[in-house]
Amino acid sequence: MAESSSPAAQTLALTSQPSVPGMDPHHQDDCPENGLGRGNGETNGPPAKRSRPTPPLSPITAAEIAEEFSHHDLSVARINNGSFGSCPGSVLSAQAVWQRLFLRQPDAFYFNHLQPGLLRSRAIVKDLINATDIDEVSLVDNATTAAAIVLQHVSWAFSEGVFHKGDAVVMLHYAYGAVKKSIHAYVARAGGHVIEVPLPFPVSSNEEIIREFRKALDLGKANGRRVRLAVIDHVTSMPSVVIPVKELTKICRQEGVDQVFVDAAHAIGNVEVDVQDIDADFYTSNLHKWFFCPPSVAFLHSKKCSSSAPCLHHPVVSQEYGKGLPLESAWIGTRDYSSQLVVPSVIDFVNRFDGGILGIRTRNHDKVVEMGMMLAQAWGTFLGSPPEMCCSMIMVALPGSLGVSSEKDALKLRSLLREEYRVEVPIHYHRPKDIEAGRQNGHSGVTGYVRISYQVYNTVDDYYRLRDAVHKLVNDGFNCGMLPSK
User: Fold this and answer.
1) 3-state class of 301 per DSSP?
2) DSSP string covering 110-136
3) Which of 20, 84, 129, 138 has the most beta carbons within 10 angstroms of its beta carbon?
4) Where is region (Disordered) located (predicted)?
5) Helix count (H) and strand count (E) of the chain?
6) Distance (Å, rounded) from C-alpha 393 to C-alpha 81?
7) Is 173 a domain residue?
8) Of the candidates 7, 51, 6, 8, which has an alpha carbon nearest to the alpha carbon of residue 28?
9) Are 221 and 361 part of one and the same domain?
10) What is the β-pairing status of strands 282-286 and 298-302?
């Protein structure tokens, strides 16, 4: 793996603790960077001393996991990690140290601590995703912000005549709602033609997805158009399916698509992420969903050899404009940067588990499949996709007798489960296009699915509570038509 050539990166040692007073007894006040955007190796005193090796952490116990997440509402079966993620208490404590450091002396924080701390976090992310250079990694608020950065660049290409009006941008039908709206707001408004890939659901194989994707590319190239951008989810949000991003990116290269942007909001900590192997031009993932950071923080990887990478700019313009996206993103005005600074503390937390983050995501996947199969068997239904197309989330069909007939029904049923049964789980409404085909596949009458998540704090009792709540509703003769309209 290539090492960063940045002088600042060479000066700073990558440690598992932030170099802030009160956390490191060997803290040195003189930091290698003084001021934002310097990054040139200049120092404000002698180089920082190398930290003493930290002793190995003891394996975490079930009781310690419960204590780390004791701030959760323990009366709720929280099987919806996918929406907002979760942050352990030890990381929240580290975040509070960073916040107090800023509030105690903001100027010292700004000049001495912020940029070295962000650089450490970016270096960790670089290694986690197998990026070739730290300058390819920027920290931003969330994947939606990263999408805005990429789509802003594409819209400028249309507006400035680099791309021709009517050229196509392809996205998945199940792309995240905010990203779909951003594509229309930035790209369609600038003259791009937006094409959605209709994905099958329930889905049984990657080949079904690949086939539909090829059809959309052919449509995008019709009448002499070019496909300028493909936006591909790594894990779709709702319904949740792991998409074969490497294969789709390869197809894009073969078919002459200019740029590929992978929206992987749910990816890091949930599936393997190797940006060199995937080979997209842009790749983003939230660190607060499945990687235990506090909300909100994400990374945007921009491939260094891509001609577009130097042209990316943060939508919030500061004095760092023009110095490269990593520095532009590192200062967008006075705000709380602590969620971006605690990545080393997250590494300490995940390394207490057998196998680190790889072990966590492997066990989470196995458990969510086990729980999904348990629910499907109990309800007499089925999974929305095979286990190999799932991550730490899985779709389980609800009994058809519940009568989920619209998105409003899905929201009202979700509220009922939350308020009456203390279960938090998203519900997806999906009416099969071909009702007769649905009957032949054994899917007759099924229009509602739950998306269950599994994270380290979950226990089997959480899923039993959902199972029993649905059983009670079915046995009581309930259907969504009985819910009051609002």
Assistant:
1) strand
2) IIIIHHHHHHHHHHHHHHHHT-S-GGG
3) 138
4) 1-58
5) 18, 12
6) 9
7) yes
8) 51
9) no
10) antiparallel
Q: pLDDT class for 319, splitting at 50, 70, 90? A: confident
Closest CA to 78 of 446, 425, 444, 467: 425
Range 375-400 average pLDDT: 96
Amino acid at 236: T
Return the SS3 of 424: strand
**Residue 374 confidence (pLDDT) above 70:** yes
pLDDT for the residue numbered 166: 87
Does residue 96 lie within any of the structural domains? no
Per DSSP, helices labelled H in 187-244 are 206-220
> Are both 311 and 174 inside the same structural domain?
yes
- Spatial contact of 270 and 64, defined as CB atoms under 8 Å apart: no
What are 272-281's pLDDT values in tens digits? 999 999 999 9
| Separation CA 17–CA 9 (nearest Å) | 16
Provide φ and ψ at 235, rounded to 5°.
Answer: -130, 115
Kindly state whether residues 240 and 296 are assigned to the same domain.
yes
- What is the rounded distance in angstroms from the CA atom of residue 482 to the CA atom of residue 91? 44
CB of 138 closer than 8 Å to CB of 325: yes
Angle made by CA atoms 14, 269, 364, in degrees to the nearest 5: 135
Residue 408 lies in a domain: yes
In a domain, 33, yes or no: no
Tell me the pTM. 0.86
Measured between alpha carbons, how far is 196 from 193 in angstroms, rounded to an integer? 10
Q: Which among 234, 209, 231 is positioned nearest to 220, based on CA atoms?
A: 231
Tokens matching residue 73: 């509402």
Task: Quick: pLDDT tens for 433-483.
Answer: 644 444 445 455 789 999 999 999 999 999 999 999 999 999 999 998 888
> Is 203 exposed, middle or buried (CB count within 10 Å of its CB: 0-12, 13-18, 19+)?
buried
Element (H, E) at 230: strand 227-233
Cβ neighbours for 332, distance < 8 A, ≥ 6 positions apart: 314, 316, 318
CA distance 445 to 404: 9
Whole-Å CA distances, 473 to 278, 293, 479: 44, 36, 8
Mean per-residue pLDDT of the chain: 85
